[in-house]
Write the C-alpha cells for this entry.
Amino acid sequence: MKNEIFNGQRFCNWFKYDIIQMWRTQMKTALWTGLAGLVFYAIVVLFNLVVEREWSGPSLDSRVLVCFIAFTVLELRQTRTYGFLTDKAKGSAWLMAPASTLEKWTGMLLMTLIVFPVLFLVSYLGVDWLLCTIDHTCGESLILGASNAIAEVNTELATQGEFLGWGIVIWFLISSTFLNFVYFLLCGICFKKNKILWGLAIIFVVSMASSALSVVIFGHGGNVDVNITNVEDFRAMMANFSILMTVVTVALAGGVFYRLKTIKH
C-alpha cells in the first residue's frame, strides 16, 4: 500500500510535472531576469559610444548593483510563481492533482528556494563572465571580483591574527535569501490581487511596529547600541541574525503548508 503522506516515486513524478509547467510559465522569466546584465552592458556601451565616443563596458560596482536589483525583482516575482493557486480554475486543478499536500509543499519549496535562484545566478553570472572575457573594458567578472575580495579580506585579517569564518557569512546570505523568497511565496498564495503591494505593505507595517517597540523597550529614539570591536563580535552578530532569519523562514514555510491545506475556492 502506498504511503498517502509522502511517496518518493510519486513525488518525483509530481516534481517533474511541476518543473515542466513552471518552464512554460515562470522559468523563462527567471532566465530573462538573469539576462539583465546583458541589457545593462548594451546600454552602457551604447551610451559611451554616443557621449564619450569610445567603447567602454560597465564597471564592476555598477554590475554588482544591477545584479542586486535583478535578484530583488526575482524575489518579488515569487508572488506569481504559485500565485495562480488563488485562481479558482487553475488553483483547483493544481490542488486536486494526484499528489499529497506534503509532496506539493516540498516541490514548491525546492522550486522556489533552489531552482529559481540557481537558474538566475547561473544565467547572470555566466553572461557576466562571458562579457568580461570578451570585452576587457568591463574589468573583472563578478565571480573573479568576489574571489579576489574574499582573498583580500582573509589576508588583511591574517595580518591581525584574526579569522572571519566565511561559513557564517554564507549562512547569513542564504538565510536572508530564503526568508525573502518564502515570504513572497506565501504572499502570492494568500492574496488574490496586488500580491506584491500587500507583501510590501506588511513589511512596512512590521518595520514601523518594530521601531515603535524598540523605542518602548530601549528608549533613546529606538537606537540600540551595537558594539562591534573585533571580528568575533561581528561573527556573533551575523550568527544571531542568521538564527533569527532561519526560524522566521521555517515559520513562513509552515504557513505555506497550512495555506495549502486550508485553501478554498
Residues 37 and 61 are 12 Å apart (CA to CA). The chain has a mean pLDDT of 87. DSSP finds ten helices and no strands in the chain.
